[in-house]
Structure prediction request, 271 residues.
Amino acid sequence: MKDILTAPFLNEMMQTTANMYRLGWDERNGGNISYLLEETEVSPYLDLSHVLRTLPLGFHAPSLEGRLFLVTGTGKYFKNVEKDPETNLGIIRIAKDGQTAELLWGYQDGGKFTSELPAHLMSHMARLSVDPQHRVVMHSHPTYTLAMNYVHKLNEKELTHTLWEMCTECIVVFPDGVGVLPWMLCGTNEIGEATAKKMKEFRLVIWGMHGIYGAGKSLDETFGLIETVEKAAQIYMLTAHLPRMNTIKDEQLKQLAEFFGVSYRKDFLNL
Prediction:
């Protein structure tokens, strides 16, 4: 077996969590990531028949039976992942009953996966139903995105429209817009179900007064989605109290989307 600490998927996760902590998106143990892995990626590094222990999922995920995930641990700090990945991360397989996680590696201090895993897995199922190449769910608390929740209407059309206006790239990067949920109790199946419902329509979902969920085909893509929203939210927060002299007009947003060939939410523009 190869040394798992050299696995590309593990190193990418280590770099991503370090970047998210450095940017201030994931204070303390805030935030979590789950990364869908292929057996062919993992088998050179782990004996997939060796299960360390089993952990209840807390809900039924039949369509994910047998799938492998690299998942951040509950109560773990992103800043510690790079120096001790085996304690702060785990690789799990969804068991045949669809209700149990088989731990194949990690959580070596006796820990377990993030408490948000049900919400993640529900979102994975939702995204896979509309995008077979989907692999990543990422939750974080970006500062300006969160600040914007308190001073802007939490309405999907209006919030998306404002974000699109902030940077020329926004409508190109997230043409499907941003879904919005009101404040809900985190760590519950209820918020997971509500997020998954939104994930069939959006790759980005705001949790009101809490943070953001992003989904994508890779860690890079998902990080980039959240990064672009956060940049737009920062520009908004830096300028919202000032008279606006210029803006990107809706006709220009339409031009951008059509020039770059992206399928955008036409109903989110006022044309």
Summary: The radius of gyration is 19 Å. DSSP finds ten helices and nine strands in the chain.
